[in-house]
From TrEMBL:
<dbReference type="InterPro" id="IPR001544">
    <property type="entry name" value="Aminotrans_IV"/>
</dbReference>
<keyword id="KW-0456">Lyase</keyword>
<dbReference type="InterPro" id="IPR043132">
    <property type="entry name" value="BCAT-like_C"/>
</dbReference>
<protein>
    <submittedName>
        <fullName>Aminodeoxychorismate lyase</fullName>
    </submittedName>
</protein>
<dbReference type="InterPro" id="IPR043131">
    <property type="entry name" value="BCAT-like_N"/>
</dbReference>
<dbReference type="InterPro" id="IPR036038">
    <property type="entry name" value="Aminotransferase-like"/>
</dbReference>
<dbReference type="Pfam" id="PF01063">
    <property type="entry name" value="Aminotran_4"/>
</dbReference>
<dbReference type="GO" id="GO:0016829">
    <property type="term" value="F:lyase activity"/>
</dbReference>
Length: 251
């Protein structure tokens, strides 16, 4: 299938320059649709509503988002898609839905390099993503797969497009540094019987690390700088069982 855009539920055949300017200030959520269902759909609705209230002082009702998602599925003629929902405003609030083919999870463990960087307004999934792409490209030029951020005090926070968690035996630890609370991370936390949120400054103290986002639910980390990790079935099985308790939701 080819990518397409829906603006407030209607197919967008041409892009107005005013639209391009307006979409630079806003927020979004990204999701993978499989058989018309989405992992953590209620969390996506909540993210869009909370962020819209904070940025634009208005609510974003779940029913409005659901209607546009259903329009996207109908237009695509498929229940297997990648969708990004942008919220922006001109004289009123708009939903811009970008639709494309589904994306398969990453297959190989990734090698990360850390950079001191703290995103602006990290709790919002906002459209200011230049810094994330910049550091991801920088990491690849230096021979790594992606970038991992640490604060000025040395705490690990998040990767360019992923959250990260660490395992020590069957203890799962999420960094307490300021981050964007990803939907997949929230799903994992829902499913885990227990977990810890704490400062992470020394990745070598853990048995394993995993990246999570809408595409990769538990992507093993091969290395962080000079710290390497071997496969760790104990934590991998725990994470898999946690996800298995959280069923996808129908659009």
């Amino acid at each position: 299938m080819t990518d397409f855009l829906l603006l407030d539920g209607a197919l967008l055949r041409a892009v107005d320059p005013v639209l391009l300017r307006a979409t630079t200030f806003g927020h979004f959520t990204s999701l993978q649709v499989r058989d018309g269902r989405v992992d953590g759909l209620d969390l996506h609705f909540d993210r869009l509503d909370r962020s819209t209230r904070e940025v634009f002082d208005e609510p974003m009702p779940a029913d409005r988002v659901r209607t546009d998602l259903r329009a996207a599925v109908d237009e695509a003629g498929s229940g297997d898609l990648s969708i990004r929902v942008n919220v922006f405003a001109t004289t009123r609030l708009h939903l811009l839905v970008r639709v494309g083919p589904p994306v398969a999870p990453t297959t190989d463990p990734v090698r990360l390099v850390t950079y001191e960087h703290e995103r602006a307004v990290p709790h919002l999934k906002h459209t200011g993503t230049f810094d994330l792409t910049y550091y991801a490209h920088k990491a690849k030029k230096e021979g790594y797969d992606d970038a991992l951020f640490r604060t000025r005090t040395g705490e690990i926070s998040e990767a360019s497009i992923w959250n990260i968690c660490f395992a020590r035996g069957t203890e799962i630890v999420f960094p307490s540094a300021p981050i964007l609370q990803g939907i997949r991370q929230q799903i994992l936390q829902r499913g885990l019987p227990t977990y810890t949120t704490a400062p992470v400054t020394a990745p070598e103290l853990y048995d394993a690390a995993y990246l999570t986002n809408s595409i990769d639910p538990a992507l093993p980390v091969a290395s962080i700088n000079d710290t390497t990790y071997e496969p760790h079935p104990e934590s991998a099985d725990l994470i898999a069982r946690a996800y298995a308790t959280q069923l996808p939701q129908t659009i």
